[in-house]
Amino acid sequence: MIINDFSNKLIREKYFKKEITKKDINKLTQLLSKLRAHGIIKKVAKKNKYYLTTNGRKIINSILIYTRKNLLT
After folding, report:
1. Per-residue pLDDT tens for 44-53?
2. How far does the chain reach from its first CA to its final CA, in angstroms?
3. Which residue in 21, 28, 33, 35 has a CA-CA distance of 20 to 30 Å to 41?
4. Which region holds residue 49: left if phi is over 0, alpha if psi is between -120 and 50, else beta?
5. Which one-letter DSSP state was computed for residue 19?
6. Does residue 31 contact residue 15 with C-beta atoms inside 8 Å?
7. Cα 15 to Cα 8: distance, rounded to the nearest angstrom
8. Which among 38, 42, 46, 48 has a CA at the least distance from the CA of 8?
9. Torsions phi, psi of 51, nearest 5?
């Protein structure tokens, strides 16, 4: 399964099952900016969405193979 794009809001809805606080939103935003700085994700131009780079896909696949887990299942 290939993820075409994702947003901060989509991740918050999937990850935080409880009530979302401002602190949680800030944490996730900071994490996304770190992933952008390392070149794992890129921002879609003029949208509030992100996508995995080629290098990011390799890294994520390596992690999933190492931990033997499936993505989004």
Report:
1. 999 889 999 9
2. 10
3. 21
4. beta
5. P
6. no
7. 10
8. 48
9. -145, 155
**From CA 10, how far away is CA 58, in angstroms rounded?**
22
Say which amino acid occupies 20. Answer: I
Position 3, amino acid: I
Mean pLDDT computed over every residue of the chain:
85
Angle CA 72–37–15, to nearest 5: 25
| Cα(61)–Cα(56) distance, integer angstroms | 8
pTM: 0.75
Decide: helix, strand or coil at residue 15. helix
For tokens 């944490």, what's the residue?
A: 27
d(CA 64, CA 59): 9
Q: Write the CA distances from 50 to 31, 35, 47, integer angstroms.
A: 13, 10, 8
